[in-house]
Structures are given as C-alpha cells and as structure tokens.
Specification:
mainly alpha; two-stranded antiparallel ribbon; 14 helices; 76% helix; globular
C-alpha cells in the first residue's frame, strides 16, 4: 500500500502544479483587476475544480489513454513526475504553461522508451486542438466583447450598479471555468494511472456507484485545489495584467470565452447533442486553459484595434508553450532509464 501511495504521489504533485499554474486562467483577470479577492477566487476554484473532475473528467482523459497506455505504476509515476517538474519549472518563471502539453510530452517520452508506437491520429487530434482552441477562444471573446459593449451602451446602467453586476458575473463565469478546468484537465493529472488504478469501485445498491476512476479523479482534484491555495497568485497576476491591461468588464469576457472553450472540448453531453443533430462535434481532448485564456485576451485586443498588447510578454509565453512538451519528453525518457536500470522497477509491460 505504501508503494502505491508513493507512486501516486507524482500525480498528486502534477495536480498541485496544475492548480498553481492553471487556476490563474480562471480567476487571474478578476484578481488582477481587484474585482475578486485572491482568497475568494482560490476557494471557488478549488471546490468547483474537484466537482468538475469527479463528475465530467472521463471524456477528455480517454484520448490521452489512446495516445499511450502507460501500463505499469512505476512508469505512470515517472510520466506524471516529469510533467509536474516541467510545469513547476515554468510556474517558477511566472509563465502560464500547459499541463496538457507537459503530460503529452511525457507520454511520448514513455512511448519512445518502451518502443510503443505513438497513435498519430490521437496526437494530431490533440495538437490540432492546441492550435484551434486559442483561435476559437479569441473569436468567442471578440464576439462577446461587442455583445456586452452593445448591451451596456443601450441599457445605460449606472456605474456603481455595473460594477456590482460585473463582480457577480466574474464569480459566476469563474465557477463555470473552474468546473470546466476540472472536467477537461483532470485527465492530465490522473489519466496515466487509469490502467493501473489501485482503487476498487464502491457501490451502494440503488443509491450510487463511485468508480475507481472517479476516486482517482477525486484525489487529483484535491491536489489541484491545494495548488490553487498555495502557489497560484503570481501566475494570476501575469495572466491578468502582464499581456494586456483589462478592465473588469473585459476580464469578464475573457473568463467567459476561455471557459466556454474548455467546456466544448470536455462535454460528452454536448458532443452527443451535436452528433444527434448531424453537426460537427468537438473532439474530447485535454486542451490548454493557458492557451484558451491567452487567445481570449488577444480577441479582446483585436476588438479594441490591437492597442496595448504586450507582444514581448506574449512571445515569452509562446516560448514556454514550445519548450514545455519537448522538455517534458526528454525528462521523461531520462527518468524512465534511471527508474528501470538503477531502481530496478518495471516501467512498461
């Protein structure tokens, strides 16, 4: 049992890293514009990330399993640890990087080490979403910005009342964003442990069933929440004010647009509805909440005529996105070698 807890610790570490880095994408703009206190943002993020992970986390995590089925607990430990160390390194640099990119890089490192062919269909689906999701988020933000602007101009709301409405709106969309983050990104944290889960299903006849995967996701969700509380404030400030100066209203639009983007790539129900209507459905893949929120900020900037955009900061963030999967893959490969040849553990079956 102690060995199982030890091996799961890297997933918990990765969850903590995700909470420290990615929660900034949900409430960063609200905190940076001083509309919501950090403590309130951290509590709401933690609670609703856990709920989203347990209830809706299965969809996006299945695609990671198709990319590389890590089938030994020691191998899963190294894959999650490599991704976590990479994300922590980027977080200490104040960069909003992607845990999705880190875990995908680490899985590819495992595929190389175990001579397992990488499923190119799944890989292209995931990398394609990395390109498409910030564009989609920018488009949604662009549209929402003009809609909100028109509503405000036509309604002539008093500034004090507008401020109160905006604060409530930021809390509501932040809760939605935290739920979507948990649903979309929990696969990054615990997805590699699904094939070697140490938990058993808990069933109360006629009442509920708590599957082993949901128990894994609960552990990961709690780890994410802990990361939000302990280390997310610095990245929140970077996201909220370092790229483009946002007003409280544009902060609301950014969080709403990025949350919708996360949701459409995580919702099995939405996918089923679109398919039943013979409409193109979004793939259920873990996308980068960092890319979604940066895309939304860019959408706002475009709507305002590309004024005030900090291209230097944007370029700095883009370098982090490229470096993350590469560094994670290399680190995973080297760590697997040591785990197998120094600590004599089977890292693949």
């Amino acid at each position: 049992m102690i060995i199982i807890i030890f091996f799961l610790s890297s997933g918990v570490f990765l969850g903590w890293s995700l909470g420290a880095n990615d929660a900034a994408n949900i409430f960063g703009t609200a905190v940076a514009t001083k509309m919501i206190r950090f403590r309130t943002a951290a509590i709401l993020s933690g609670v609703f990330v856990i709920i989203g992970a347990v209830i809706s986390g299965a969809g996006a995590s299945s695609t990671l399993g198709e990319l590389g089925a890590v089938n030994k607990l020691a191998g899963a430990f190294i894959v999650a640890l490599s991704a976590a160390v990479t994300v922590l390194w980027m977080t200490k640099a104040g960069l909003p990087v992607s845990t999705s990119q880190a875990i995908v890089g680490a899985i590819i490192g495992w595929n190389f080490f175990s001579h397992t062919p990488t499923d190119l269909t799944s890989l292209s689906k995931i990398t394609g979403s990395w390109v498409f999701s910030p564009i989609l988020s920018a488009i949604i933000a662009f549209i929402f910005f003009h809609l909100v602007k028109r509503i405000i101009e036509n309604s002539r709301i008093h500034l004090m009342r507008l401020d109160a409405y905006t604060r409530i709106g930021l809390i509501v969309v932040g809760i939605f964003g935290a739920y979507s983050l948990g649903a979309n990104n929990i696969g990054n944290v615990m997805g590699v442990f699904i094939n070697s889960s140490p938990f058993k299903d808990i069933t109360v006849p006629g009442l509920f069933r708590f599957s082993s995967i949901q128990q894994l996701f609960l552990v990961g969700g709690i780890a994410i929440a802990f990361g939000v509380f302990t280390y997310s404030k610095r990245v929140m400030i970077t996201v909220g004010s370092g790229i483009f100066k946002l007003s409280p209203v544009t902060a609301f639009v950014v969080v709403l647009a990025s949350s919708v983007t996360l949701f459409v790539f995580a919702s099995q129900r939405l996918q089923n509805i679109l398919i039943s209507l013979n409409l193109p459905a979004f793939p259920l893949v873990p996308i980068s909440s960092s890319q979604a929120v940066v895309g939304a900020v860019m959408g706002i900037s475009l709507a305002k005529g590309v004024k005030g955009m900090n291209f230097r900061k944007l370029g700095h963030i883009a370098i982090g996105w490229i470096a993350t999967p590469v560094a994670s893959a290399v680190l995973s490969y080297i760590a697997l070698f040591f785990m197998q040849n120094v600590f004599m553990q089977d890292v693949f079956g």
